[in-house]
Design goal:
Elements: E1 10-14, E2 20-24, E3 30-34, H1 37-46, H2 51-69
Antiparallel strand pairs: 1-2, 2-3
The chain binds zinc ion.
């Protein structure tokens, strides 16, 4: 089980319309665009990384590493 991971790395930004945009820095999925931090917290606590997205991110990281090393 991966439930021992303490705090998932969510990144929050303020939208122009003052809603809060939260996304996951591991799978880069948008978690929510909510109007209150309580809603953001609730959405974040329900977020589970999509394994297919994680795989894509991992592949992308490998590709960019190769490119930057060249
Ligand atoms: Zn995620």
């Amino acid at each position: 089980m991966n439930d021992r991971i303490k705090s998932p790395p969510f990144i929050r930004k303020r939208n122009k319309d003052w809603t809060i945009h939260s996304y996951c820095s591991r799978c880069f999925a948008t978690v929510t665009d909510a109007s209150s931090t309580a809603e953001v917290k609730a959405a974040e606590s329900e977020h589970r990384c999509d394994p297919r997205l994680l795989e894509m991110v991992e592949k992308y990281r490998k590709v960019t590493r190769l490119v930057s090393a060249a």
